[in-house]
Amino acid sequence: MAIGGIFGRARSRTSDADVGNRPLQIIARDDVPRRLELLDDFEESGLGWFWATDVEGRLVYLSDKAAEQLGKPIQDIIGEPLGSLFSLNPLDEDDAPERPLSFLLSTRAAISDLTVRIANRGRATWWLVSGRPQLDASGAFKGYRGSAKDVTAVYEQQRDASRLSQYDSLTGLANRHRMGKRLGTILTSSQPQKRGCALMMLDLDRFKQVNDTLGHPAGDELLKQVALRLKRVVGPQAEIGRLGGDEFQVILPAFDDREKLGDLASRVIQMISQPYSIDGSRAIIGTSVGIAVAPWHGTESADLVRNADLALYSAKGAGRGQYRFYAPDMKNKAAEHRAVEEDLRDALARGELQLYYQPVVRSSDSVLTGFEALMRWNHPERGSVSPAVFIPVAEETNLISQLGEWALRQACQDAAAWPGRLRIAVNVSANQFSGEGLPAIVASALANSGLDSDRLELEITESVFMGHAEAVDRMFASLKQLGVRLALDDFGTGYSSLGYLRRAPFDKIKIDKSFVRGCTDPTNSNSAIISAVIGLAEALNMETTAEGVEANDELEIMRKTGATYIQGYIFSKPIPNDLVTERLGDGSFQFETAGERKHRAERRTVFRRIVVIHGSQRYDVMMRNISKTGALIEGLSEVPVGTKLVLDLGAGELAPATVRRSDGDSQGVQFDAPLASEGGEVRTGRTRKSRLVLAET
Question: Cβ of 592: how many Cβ atoms within 10 Å?
Fold first, then answer.
């Protein structure tokens, strides 16, 4: 041992031959000079140092080597409080604040192997400190005496090991273990102060395709870039973690404003969806976001994580690239999702799927030019299942390629029997597009049906651009060689760029219904966006179709801005092929408008109990429906028009409103400000106040 070496130096110097001939020279306790020499040798060796304080905790002795470590002359240190030189420093530095050593010294208890930190010319050094209180004959405290040694190397090794256990080695973000620990700590500390806490769950859309096409090293690099983008978007107020694979989590302490959370989620989606450059290749992915907010969606970390996961599940089910806040009905929706998945696997074999066709009408003269094929599912027990329900399930379970091939073949067969040169538009999913067999399937469908290739229009969403750029270009070239037309569907809602638009051989751009819906609202820019898209299409020699047109005022704007074609309920809902054949046989190529005169905000039927506040009174009412601009409530009697109310929509969300229509116990109210949209679903108002605060007012 090293200590034995020091004792060896204190013995009289003799040769090995003389050891057996001379008596052992023991250092006696009263041999003060030789004991001091032993003490000096030990301190000079750097193995450890000694210190002592007076009754007030001031240093009265410190080894010279220790003073050198502190970077100060010994005369400047003696007399200083020992506790002012160091601070405790736990390995998990972020989970506990530093405590002064002076606090422990004030307890006058023994100190054993405490790790303390010192700052020496900018370099952090750690010591292991021990000490015992000294008492006089009467038992009065006289001060401390103790020892210290430098454990920097050992401490840093332990700290690195601790960090490895809490952080993701690839991205440097917190890992699942640390995020769970931090969330629990934050929720516990938030409750006494009655503060909220938001949790975001994210996973990446089409990340697997990047791994498959560019390789796992490219996937790792992509994850690193995603981590950097997340840090830039959410800022230092949040803690970001990678839970594994392509799943990320964001904790936002003291953050519960849903409008701001929705804005942040939108920015995250937008930032993550921008193109990435990886080793000279270009990759585009997307993300979906689920949000849960404490205390309304849970006060325990397990509950909050589960509910944020359900919200993420809902966002992905709604078409990806969206965000959703948790709502209690999502539990039932998740169970429903699983049931739909099981039944959908057998729906095609049982003949439950059918194609409906929606007319596409020329804008200038309302003449029919073709149809879009839309899939419908008539379940024997559930009845009609909405495509908004089963298409996302098909995409998640890879059934979409099978269903898509069936739809393509069936649409070509039906269209081949129509008179004239009417076109048929068929949707092609991103999964189908990325498969090498798509051109062969299209060629087979055309050959078997006898349909001319220029009558087939393949509608492709912007999500196909998330694949490998060279593979995308090859697929476009292969399809165009077949002579089919290509249309870019849902333009402006996904991941495309003008660079891709210039390169891709599209014949048409479809203007998404989300832009058409708000084009009559002077407070937004939808009309200007539509004009810009149409101008861009004309410059690129492409046609345009405005889809989702329902009202005459929308139709007027589409015609005024120069859209080539119109599609929507304004002319016809989707109809089955037998009805298409019947109408075409009658020569019904001219369509009359059948929509409303003006567009109004979409209302969602809810049948939900809420509270209405009027002055200091609170009333339970039934909300029948809700839109961004208003709601229909029942339960109050003969309320005068113009009455100011506040609707408590739940989860601490308040929406000030004015009664605009009153008929007995039914009132139509208009919100003072449009409601915030929570990722596509109207749920909350712009005025927000915590229920915890309301309880005290």
Answer: 8
Name the token pair of 334. 């998740």
The answer to whether residues 65 and 86 touch, using CB atoms and an 8 Å cutoff, is no
Flag residues of the chain having pLDDT under 70: 1-21, 46, 87-101, 119-123, 160-164, 193, 319, 466-468, 492-500, 523, 587-603, 651-652, 676-697
- 139, two tokens: 């038992």
Q: Domains of the chain, with CATH numbers?
A: 1-44 (no CATH), 46-90+102-165 (3.30.450.20), 167-328 (3.30.70.270), 336-585 (3.20.20.450), 604-694 (2.40.10.220)
Which residue is listed with tokens 């149809």? 371
Give the C-alpha separation, 5 to 45, whole Å. Answer: 10
- Name every residue whose Cβ is closer than 8 Å to that of residue 244 and which is 6 or more positions away in sequence: 175, 176
Q: Which of 306, 300, 389, 308 is nearest to 344 (CA)?
A: 389
Go through 460-482 and write b for each residue having 16 or more CB atoms within 10 A of its CB, e for each that does not. bbbbbbbbbbeebeebbeebbee
Tokens representing 96 are 């506990």
- pLDDT, tens digit, for every residue of 640-694? 999 999 998 876 678 899 998 888 788 999 898 877 655 444 444 333 333 333 3
**Stated pTM of the model:** 0.57
**pLDDT tens digits along 366-419:** 889 999 999 999 988 888 888 888 888 888 777 899 999 999 999 999 999 998
